[in-house]
Amino acid sequence: MGTVPRILVFFIVSSLVLAWLLLANTPRKSSLRFDPTFDPRKSWGAYTPFFPVHKYAPPPAGCQVIQVNILQRHGARFPTSGASINIVSAVQKLKNADAYTHPSMQFMSNFVYTLGTNDLVPFGARQSSDAGAITFKRYAHLFDANNIPFVRASSGTRVVDSATNWTEGFAAASHGVYRPPLSVILSEEGNDTLESHMCPNAGSSDPQTDEWLNVYAPAITTRLNSWAPGAKLTDHETHALISLCAFHTAALGNPTTPSPVCGLFTPSDFAGFDYSADLDKYYHTGYGASLGRVQGVGYANELLARLTGTPVRDNTQTNRTLDADPTTFPLNRTLYADFSHDNAMIACMSAIGLFRQPEALSTVEPDPQRTWHTHAMVPFSGRMVVEKLNCDETEFVRILVNDALQPLEFCGTGTGICTLEAFVQSQSYAQSDGDGDWDRCFR
């Protein structure tokens, strides 16, 4: 009888060790099986493909849209040249590994990295074209032969291409009746309200994203290195590999068929990556940066000029020569479409007052109740749309971000609509050129 307990103890301990080994070498996919709502494509931060956050809601009864202002990000692209460095390094380390000890890693033996840098991928071009078509269909009542969209773009190649793809999609949806040109290209070397580059003292979000990297990435790095002995990936390279999942999927052209790289990661991994993007935008050009939202003041003042039909009043990053000319900044159009970058759009949203958080985002513990989600704010081809409404002879404003109606608690009752007068009054930060923040950019 005395040997039975020892046998049981041996059996139990052996079983636990075996179970631990199996768990440590098994992709943690269980939450994907048991959570049918999880979609990794919506956990790629700023590299998320566009999706409507909510179904578009028509204006309230008795109201008609009389003007639309669109601020849209360029479509899906290749990695930037800077981001490519860690991606290429990580891929090369995995390909040079001594062996692969897990099935999820086997594809690497034949994987060839062929992505370009900076430019749109074909899927990104389609995103912008689709957006143009949607705009025509949604607001067709605003256009006639003498009133077609006025289109501007920041001068980055992928931004200009997105703008022209949008105009082509718009023209095609109108069966060729309306062909809006790209009327203004704002040089990114000069004053440009569609780019965030004019505040030398703005700083970066690196301290915050590095803190979070130290929280979320080490366990993933350890797992990947155990699956590819000898690879010796760093946490920064692990983060880059998760971004490769998004970039390679976009390059393949069908976001419903993910890259095999995506199979290396779990829902928890993607959530950690996604939150890194939240911190990046919040502490770069959002509320978490002392000189973040001032970089969106110029666009906010241009928006006020269009909504009120009055000249632009701004002493920040506007191109005052272009904005003073009715040819390059008309005030009589019913639809304006501006094409930009994600960092600039975050600054514009923050300058206006959207997505305020009750507390600054933590670098160690994400708040599940936060409303600051980069994937829902500035995905590839994401857009902020400001509609001006006429409701029984009174003008109102409402704002939609990727079709999600914003509450506008800063100028109304939080129901998503406020009078034009109240909206203009709420924009004191923009109208004061950032309450002194713009001056702090240079001293």
UniProtKB/TrEMBL annotation:
It catalyses: 1D-myo-inositol hexakisphosphate + H2O = 1D-myo-inositol 1,2,4,5,6-pentakisphosphate + phosphate; 1D-myo-inositol 1,2,5,6-tetrakisphosphate + H2O = 1D-myo-inositol 1,2,6-trisphosphate + phosphate; 1D-myo-inositol 1,2-bisphosphate + H2O = 1D-myo-inositol 2-phosphate + phosphate; 1D-myo-inositol 1,2,4,5,6-pentakisphosphate + H2O = 1D-myo-inositol 1,2,5,6-tetrakisphosphate + phosphate. Transmembrane segments: none annotated. Residues 1-19 form the signal peptide. It is found in: Secreted. GO terms for molecular function: acid phosphatase activity; inositol hexakisphosphate 3-phosphatase activity. Disulfide bonds join 63-391, 245-262, 411-418. It comes from the Eukaryota. The active site is at 74 (nucleophile), 342 (proton donor). Keywords: Disulfide bond, Glycoprotein, Hydrolase, Secreted, Signal. One of its GO terms (cellular component) is extracellular region. Monomer. This is Phytase A. It comes from Roridomyces roridus.
